[in-house]
Amino acid sequence: MTVSGTTEAPAGTATAIRLDGVCRRYRDGDRTVTALDAVDLRIPVGRFTAVMGPSGSGKSTLLHCASGLDTPTSGTIRIGDTEITGMRETARTRLRRERVGFVFQSYNLMPSLTIGDNITLPLRLADRRPDHAWLHDLIGHVGLRGLLNRRPSELSGGQQQRAALARALVARPDVVFADEPTGALDLRTAAEVLDLFGRMVSELGQTIVMVTHDPVAAARADVTVVMSDGRIADTLARPSAERLAHRLARLERGAA
Ligand SMILES: Nc1ncnc2c1ncn2[C@@H]1O[C@H](COP(=O)(O)OP(=O)(O)OP(=O)(O)O)[C@@H](O)[C@H]1O
Predict the structure, then answer these.
(1) Is the ipTM beyond the 0.90 threshold?
(2) In this structure, which residue's CA is closest to atom 24 in ligand 1?
(3) Atom 18, ligand 1: which residue's CA is nearest?
(4) Contact status, residue 49 vs residue 222, Cβ threshold 8 Å
(5) DSSP code of 1?
(6) Ligand 1 pocket, mutate which of 24, 37, 59, 67 (most atoms under 8 A from CB)
(7) What is the mean pLDDT of each run of 10 residues along the chain (256 residues)?
(8) Which domains does the chain have, with CATH numbers?
């Protein structure tokens, strides 16, 4: 398993996402902001990886670049064996649709569609037929059987986030990226959603990458990548929430 201070995948584990020397700079008036500063990172297949760090440390930029939503200024990114840097926008869009799933803090379900239609939307967008056995299993896993004809506004926050996870998984993506997925949930519901993420990893071998501010959420992951000033400060295997909170507090005070 990964240990503090390294950014290697655990020995013998395949790599789902690989970043080499990734920089992302933004122009801000006459200033340049370096959001990612020569990041090298391996995200292992079939593991739950959390990304945390102080506000402005580059977590969202890392997620957007690694998922192909944004393009780095320099460096290379691979999803599996496919290098996504240098791809045209249409090819990247297709790759995201086929191989990447997303879960957002605000669920982003379509209010006018039923939960069932929300979950299968990625298949319709990709013009793919549903695999009915998988769909049946998936809906059982996320505990939404019996709620498929409801609209999102008729579900609790936790149920909506479980629907969003099912939508992210329906096309069997290589990796699911989750951006603060528990940010809008109360503690108990957040714990239930994190349990579900953990089960998708341990039971289905799904690769999940989750950006979070919350040390308690990050502590549920197999590996936590801690960011600071656009760099990776640590990669920690199953750290406790206390250790992560302490690490974050030090980084927020500006200590290394
Ligand atoms: N579009 C942009 N234009 C200019 N600067 C940007 C842009 N997007 C991000 N930045 C800057 O890049 C740095 C990293 O931002 P990023 O959003 O990745 O951090 P973060 O760790 O996700 O922050 P938070 O936890 O507050 O969401 C910050 O200094 C931010 O102000």
Answers:
(1) yes
(2) 55
(3) 58
(4) yes
(5) -
(6) 59
(7) 45 86 95 96 96 95 95 96 93 91 94 97 89 93 94 96 94 94 91 92 95 94 96 95 95 83
(8) 45-63+99-252 (3.40.50.300)
